[in-house]
């Protein structure tokens, strides 16, 4: 039998972590109905909509609502308390029977709601993590983060290039290099090129109809490329949700736009729109100059490789994407790529500071 009718969990969830989820699960077990109120200040760098979406995904049985709260925190000022409460009451609505919290201010918050305070893991012994700790060191807190937060924080590196320039070899080598570090890095993901799988299936279908068919008999229609781009991005997103702080991709939807141009002679606006929906942190462009062309049955354009390398570079520059051209033998390319990735990781993750808080512990929930 659940003890409370309507429970409330309130926090910034900047970003949400395992401690938050434990708090919500504990409250759900004791309430007929639970509201999770996500409060975000305009100065914070993780959008309110993202935090609400992450909490809804993790707790489908709770009612997750969001509110913008730009009022400074001062636990000793009744007027500021009331200003906050006006926001809280407006977002929650109705009577609250219990406030579930791990904070010192929980008793006062519960009193102002006319509710019972339920204190959960105040010393954070079950999940030794906080929002402050995550913002300071996401890698060190990685094990406490849910799939949505991991996907948002993962540094995404895309290896792209013309035909037979070693994109698969380099991207796989990078993933293996970071897996060998162990710890959170052991789950470093690698995303295969979906367009190649799609091409293999088209060739197989052509040969089912005519066993003598070759790659020269296969053609592409413009409407196929958005399908490839969406699938490529979906597989990238899936891998980012499950892996380490870095993800390596053998091409992406941005590259799909260049392949459309290569096969059909023009750009595809829908592919370009899709490519703009996902953030990537670094592109590694494999130069064609040091890699001999190998025809594996799905390639037919050795003379186009210089043009494609140039078009990749032009579009990377035009769209302002961060990139590095890698050349030389396999060892040299891997060394160049690792150095670029290390420089990216060394920049860290940058979260805007929350609003100043008077007499509130920095280990915020």
Q: Mind explaining what this structure looks like?
A:
With about 375 residues, the chain is an alpha/beta fold. About 45% of the residues lie in helices and about 15% in strands. The chain has 13 helices and twelve strands. It has helices at about 20-30, 50-60, 80-90, 105-115, 130-135, 145-155, 165-180, 195-210, 225-240, 255-265, 270-275, 305-320, 330-345; strands spanning about 5-10, 30-40, 65-70, 75, 100, 115-120, 155-160, 190, 245-250, 280-285, 325, 355-360. A five-stranded parallel β-sheet has the order 3-2-1-5-6, with helices on both faces. A five-stranded parallel β-sheet has the order 8-9-7-10-11, sandwiched between helices. Strand 1 (about 5-10), helix 1 (about 20-30) and strand 2 form a beta-alpha-beta unit. Helix 9 runs parallel beside helix 11 (about 270-275). The longest helix has 19 residues, at about 225-240. It is elongated and about 75 Å long. It starts with a strand and ends in a 7-residue tail after the last strand. Residues about 360-365 have low confidence and may be disordered.
């Amino acid at each position: 039998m659940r003890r409370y009718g309507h429970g409330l969990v309130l926090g910034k969830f900047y970003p949400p972590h395992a401690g938050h989820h434990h708090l919500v699960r504990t409250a759900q077990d004791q309430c007929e109905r639970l509201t999770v109120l996500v409060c975000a200040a305009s100065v914070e760098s993780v959008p309110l909509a993202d935090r609400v979406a992450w909490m809804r995904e993790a707790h489908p049985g709770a009612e997750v609502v969001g509110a913008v709260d730009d009022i400074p925190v001062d636990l000793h000022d009744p007027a500021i308390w009331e200003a906050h409460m006006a926001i809280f009451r407006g977002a929650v609505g109705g009577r609250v029977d219990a406030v579930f919290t791990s904070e010192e201010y929980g008793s006062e918050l519960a009193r102002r709601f006319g509710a019972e305070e339920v204190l959960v893991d105040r010393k954070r012994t079950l999940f030794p993590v906080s929002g402050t700790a995550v913002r300071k060191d996401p890698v060190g807190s990685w094990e406490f983060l849910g799939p949505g937060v991991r996907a948002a924080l993962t540094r995404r590196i895309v290896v792209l290039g013309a035909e037979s320039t070693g994109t698969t070899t380099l991207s796989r080598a990078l993933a293996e290099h970071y897996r060998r570090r162990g710890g959170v890095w052991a789950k470093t993901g690698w995303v295969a090129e979906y367009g190649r799988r799609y091409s293999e299936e088209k060739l197989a279908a052509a040969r089912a109809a005519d066993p003598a068919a070759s790659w020269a008999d296969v053609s592409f229609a413009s409407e196929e490329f958005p399908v490839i781009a969406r699938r490529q991005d979906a597989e990238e997103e899936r891998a980012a949700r499950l892996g380490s702080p870095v993800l390596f991709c053998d091409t992406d939807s941005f590259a799909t736009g260049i392949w459309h141009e290569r096969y059909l002679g023009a750009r595809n606006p829908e592919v370009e729109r899709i490519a703009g929906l996902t953030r990537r942190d670094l592109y590694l462009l494999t130069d064609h100059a040091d890699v001999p062309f190998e025809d594996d049955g799905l390639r037919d354009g050795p003379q186009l490789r210089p043009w494609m390398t140039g078009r990749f570079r032009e579009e990377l520059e035009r769209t302002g994407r961060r990139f590095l051209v890698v050349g030389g033998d396999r060892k040299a390319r891997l060394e160049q790529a690792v150095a670029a990735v290390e420089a990216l990781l060394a920049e860290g993750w940058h979260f805007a500071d929350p609003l100043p808080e008077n007499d509130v512990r920095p280990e915020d929930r």
